Amino acid sequence: MRRFSGLVLIFAAAAVSACSTSPKPLPLPPPAPDLSEPQTLPAPGKSVLYTDCIGQAIDRSAVTRVSGEGVELLRFTCTGAPAQRFYEALGVPGGAAGSTWTEGGRSFRSTSAIRESLFGADYCSTGPGGATCQIHLNTGPFLTAAPPARG
Question: What is the 3-state secondary structure (H, E, C) of 121-142?
Answer without folding.
Answer: CCEEEECCCCCEEEEEEECHHH
